[in-house]
Specification:
Number of strands: 6
Shape: globular
Distance between the termini: 30 Å
Radius of gyration: 14 Å
Length: 126
């Protein structure tokens, strides 16, 4: 699935502003299909969203299969990809129970595919 190409078809329209002053961008790729994927990105400005944040997010979407192979195997479906303050979060929903978890990645030029897998955690909590 080429989620990066699909993201490029969505205009970079900033949405709400968070409590911390970041601008939020949200969209659903391939909405209504089995491959639907939520996207969330946060930036300091609309200009930063377009020039800095979305290119990094697009790059991560291009490497999504490689990033998933860096993680342990889980019986879960990828639901949301989030880029927040430079860190990438992949939110999964477990298939067998009502549970979600977030795999955290940090940019790292020395790591495979430019991202280091940091484990499961809270993307927004640091």
């Amino acid at each position: 699935m080429d989620y990066a190409a699909e993201l490029r078809r969505h205009p970079p329209v900033a949405g709400a502003t968070t409590d911390t002053g970041l601008i939020e961008f949200e969209c659903d790729l391939l909405r209504g299909t089995d491959d639907e994927l939520g996207i969330q990105a946060y930036a300091t400005s609309s200009a930063s969203l377009e020039s800095d944040v979305l290119p990094v997010l697009t790059n991560a979407l291009d490497r999504l299969d490689s990033l998933r192979r860096m993680m342990p195997e889980y019986d879960a479906d990828l639901a949301i990809v989030t880029l927040h303050e430079g860190r990438l979060g992949l939110t999964f929903w477990e298939r067998t129970q009502n549970n979600e978890f977030i795999a955290i990645f940090t940019p790292d030029d020395a790591a495979p595919h430019g991202w280091r897998y940091d484990g499961l955690g809270d993307l927004f909590g640091g």
